[in-house]
Amino acid sequence: MCRCSQNEPIKLDGGRAQQILQRRINQSVAEYEVFNALELSRGGLCTHVREGWNIGKPPYGYTSKRYRHPNPMKAERGATKTRLEPDGLHAQTVTQIAQWRYHENLGYSTIADRLNADPDRYPPPVPPGERRARGAWGKSAVCEILRNPKYTGYQVFNRRASRSRRGAYNDPALWVWSPELVHEPLIPQWMFDELNARRQAKRGSRDGNEPNTHPATRRTYLLRGMVHCPCGRRLYGQQRHHATYYVCWPRGNNRGRPETYPGHPKTLYIGEAALLDAVSAFYGDRVFGPHRRELLTAEIASADDRATREREAERERLQRSLTDLDRRQANVLRQAQDCEPGDPFAQGLRRTYNELEEQRKTALAKIADLDEADAAEPARPTADAAELLDALPYLVLNLTDAPEPLQRRLYEITQLTVRLHTDSDHATISIRLPADQLPAITAAAAGIHQQTHRPVTSKVTGRSVDPVRAPCRVRTDDPRFTRAVLWPAELRRLGPGVGWLGP
């Protein structure tokens, strides 16, 4: 039996050219209708998100609030739209997870253990269907919360591939964002950006300084994960001839791929003794020493922020340029609405609009380059750091003689970071002083003071005082202290024990 379309010519004998042509035209039209429906549907979803409406189940920490549908015809049928609102304890849990990750630099597993220790205070998430619910926190749940940009107050769509690649994350350039905040954020935007920047650097590193579970493990390293090579890699510990070194050997896990470490020395190593001497002097002089405020004030006064000011001025100029381009594009669109499609004036307006769009993209690219330059530049101390320092006691510490667990505890709370420089035997030592962790910092330093309890020879002389009392109190409710203060030290000469082996 011959099957033909309604508009196909019926020919039982002879040529079939006309029939085949009509059939192929029908197939093309059908395919066009399918793709057109998909594009219109996706465009509707993108508009839905840009207007701030939620799609699907609310993420953990939020609940959905229903609103009357803006389309009167759909509203008459009872259709609604939803926005996100904080959900009590769940919202507080999200904020607490972000604070642990940012201020204490904890891993996903450690955060999950803390959450599971008090399930009434930190209710575990419930997946769709509830049959997969574990009734406890896992690393994947913590990771998903810290990676979800909806917690910054924006609506985001197309983060993951829903029909391909098994839900893999799409390129952030393909994400669809609402142009402004549409619900209450649970994680500040600046904190979310910092957490995502840190994620790759911390990947594969466990928390604490407990021995590895590998049966061949014989010891631990005090500064594990805290010493960084100029190439961005973390140095790993190694013991030779009863001396401890930290080594960066990129060829070890990049064999056959020399392009991954161009210009890098074959091996970079540094002795632990040299590092500990510099770190001990840093804490003794600049954190717990009696002249710490004078040293910080002098460093702030001598800081050269000329390049930062120039970038800020350029950013303001580009922002003004973007505002002017948006205004000019709006004027072009307003004039084009009254023109016929084939009007030469309309074609000229279209060319003008495209030229303005190219200028707009160029300005946005320059702003992105300025943001990358700001992110790459090390943070500089501010006057807020001096007030945080005043809340710490004056102590004389001898860190080199303190037990390793006490040292490690102090380094972890203050998030000690040592960055080496290949062009000299200097390093940059930086710490963070979270306002809500000052009592823990004081307790850790007091424990070291009680263990050693003898003055250390240093450039700064002073007397020891009661470690529990501080020169003044810290106002943790002050909004200036909501962020941890990053305080880099001046470049310190490490002396012997530093080596760079060429190729």
Which key features would you list for this structure?
single chain; alpha+beta; Hect, E3 ligase catalytic domain fold; 4 domains; five-stranded mixed β-sheet; 42% helix
Written account of the structure:
The protein has 503 residues and is an alpha+beta fold. The protein folds into four domains: 1-50; 80-202, Putative Large Serine Recombinase, Chain B, Domain 2 (Hect, E3 ligase catalytic domain fold, Alpha-Beta Complex); 227-303 and 382-501, no CATH class; 306-376. It is 42% helix and 12% strand. The protein is built from 13 helices and 13 strands. Strands 5, 9, 10, 11 and 12 form a five-stranded mixed sheet that branches. Strands 6-7-8-13 form a four-stranded antiparallel sheet. The N and C termini lie far apart (78 Å).
Secondary-structure blueprint:
Layout: H1 17-50, E1 62-68, H2 72-76, E2 80-86, H3 88-103, H4 108-116, H5 139-147, E3 156-157, E4 176-177, H6 189-202, E5 227-228, E6 236-240, E7 243-248, E8 267-271, H7 272-287, H8 292-302, H9 306-336, H10 344-376, H11 383-390, H12 404-413, E9 417-420, E10 426-433, H13 438-452, E11 485-488, E12 492-493, E13 498-501
Parallel strand pairs: 5-9
Antiparallel strand pairs: 1-2, 3-4, 6-7, 7-8, 8-13, 9-10, 10-11, 10-12
Please mark out the parts with pLDDT under 50 across 5 or more consecutive residues, or reply none.
455-493
Helical content (DSSP H or I, runs of 4+): 40-55%
Fraction in beta strands: 5-15%
The SS-based structural class is alpha+beta
